[in-house]
From TrEMBL:
Gene3D superfamilies from the UniProt entry: 3.30.70.260
Similarity-based family: Belongs to the UPF0735 family.
Signal sequence range: none
Top-level division of the source organism's lineage: Bacteria
NCBIfam families assigned: PRK04435.1
Protein name: UPF0735 ACT domain-containing protein LY28_01172
Amino acid sequence: MKQESVFFLVDSFILPEVFSKVIEVKKILSTGKIKTVNDAVKEVGISRSAYYKYKDYIFPFYETSRGKVLTLFFVVEDFSGILSSIIDRIASAKANILTINQNIPINGLADVTVSIETFEMKDDMQKLMTEIEKIEGVRRCEILAR
């Protein structure tokens, strides 16, 4: 009988360093900066066996949103091209856009909701949201629903 998984949210400060290094290896491999596990573990200073022991059980907090449908909410200024900029950024992260809804602007601001599927995303959600917040005219940016 398979034991049910139980998840905890724990500050990395109290964990053994090997856990953070496993996350580092995963990040290095996902960016393509280093191609092999062997080279990546050497780079961060852990053994291959430590990496393989923990790799399927340790994830950054943001990665729990991978493979999910998320609804993003934005308040944007009403000018031509702003929605296009947001959509371009989501597309460049390789998220699959499922729906887009933009309300009629009131007092120069419009509410926009975008539902995305995150399975194929190459960027993490934290990075995506940070980059969207930097787009000129984006006043508010949040994850509305998971």
